[in-house]
Amino acid sequence: MNESNVNGAAEKAFELGEKYESECIGCAQTTIAAIFEALGIWNDDVFNAASGLANGLGLTGDGSCGALIGASMVMGYIFPRKHKDFQDMYKPMKSYGLVKNLHSQYVKKYGSTRCSEVQKSGMTVTWTLWELNSYNEEMKADMVNYCSKIVANVAKMATKIIIENGFKPEVDSPAIQQ
Hints:
Blueprint: H1 3-24, H2 27-39, H3 44-49, H4 66-78, H5 93-110, H6 115-123, H7 132-140, H8 143-164
Helix pairs in contact: 1-2, 1-8, 2-4, 2-8, 4-5, 4-8, 5-8
């Protein structure tokens, strides 16, 4: 795949990530949806499994960024260790390496993978979405716009990594049509 097509798919993931997070909210799922659609694939099980992973795990702000987790789930889905190979500890090495690459890029850009720390560094405040007052304050502080940019960036980074490591997007995917 040529560089133009890689960048086209990555840009499509960026656009979809930003759109989905601003419209649907749920950083892990919105990142997965953006990457899957940019690559011309879909898997309901992976998408569904990310339901509880937003805002630092379960809306707590206390865990890793949901966008990073969602993108990592896609990498594991595309470059898996299958159940038949469960006893082979070397089978997931490709996924480990790709996720490590994404993690390194993420930390370089945001300074931490912890949701609350990423929020605080970019917006000077952090919240848990479980508290109504906190939710209202987040909306005033433009949290959705801030997190939409993170989802977009992570979807773009992950899509590039995935394609550059051998995944061939579906040829009919609008993301790679020029």
